[in-house]
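Table 4 source record.
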Amino acid sequence: MKTFKFKSMNCRLAVGRYREPSNTAVTLQVWDKPDGGYWEPYATLSINIRQLDMRSGEFVANHDCTALVAELAELGLVEPTGERLSYGYIEGQPVYRLTARGLETSVED
């Protein structure tokens, strides 16, 4: 697993699955101390919409983290699929997929 720099922090992606349905779950984690420490959750990048069965590696961006996910796309870790979904009061939320580079910087969660 490789890490990447984001806003001067050492980071990795934690990729797992939601319970029902088994959609991709993505969290950004940061290393808390340069001289030793542990991986700490920084942001939950995905949300689970129970009515949708997403393709493997694809996720709906958490509406609180849309700008953050877009910045990770600029780094080549995720890419937009072009799809947008609406749920509840949220309109047109983008769908992303993990890239090969994103998978290289991820750990199973």
